[in-house]
Design brief:
The chain has 136 residues and is mainly α. It has six helices and no strands. The protein starts with 8 loop residues before the first helix and ends with a helix.
């Protein structure tokens, strides 16, 4: 049985800001010289998503201004992660799980560029992203 999910354009933007913003947060927390690799690995993970989430995340958000600091970016992205989980859980818990898994795969892919354990900054950012996903 397939459940039809109805997402508004604003809902889709929230999901995109959340997921692509999570990759941006990981990139910002990456070591000097590795931010591009972090963003690349995270982006590949997002564009590899399937289901409704895959269709929504196939495009990065356009015209979004994240701000100049990591704190400003986090102020926008972390609540969007929580809101995304809330709205998907209301309509289809399986798609909420798909979104959570997709974002965590992107975070993990971004964190793995150090061939082993992620840097302390990347590990801390991953914890914050996971906490925001689980706050819903």
């Amino acid at each position: 049985m397939t459940i039809a999910i109805s997402l508004t354009d604003q809902d889709k933007l929230t999901l995109r800001v959340a997921a692509w913003g999570a990759v941006s947060l990981m990139s910002a927390a990456g070591a000097t010289g590795s931010a591009h690799r972090v963003a690349t690995e995270g982006s590949i993970a997002l564009t590899s998503a399937t289901g409704l989430v895959g269709h929504v995340l196939a495009k990065a958000p356009k015209g979004v201004k994240y701000g100049r600091t990591v704190a400003t970016l986090a102020d926008q992205v972390l609540p969007a992660l929580t809101e995304s989980m809330r709205l998907l859980n209301q309509q289809d818990p399986a798609e909420a799980a798909n979104f959570r898994g997709t974002v965590l795969v992107a975070v993990d892919a971004a964190a793995q560029i150090h061939k082993g354990t992620p840097s302390p900054a990347l590990a801390d950012m991953a914890r914050k992203i996971t906490a925001a996903l689980d706050a819903a």
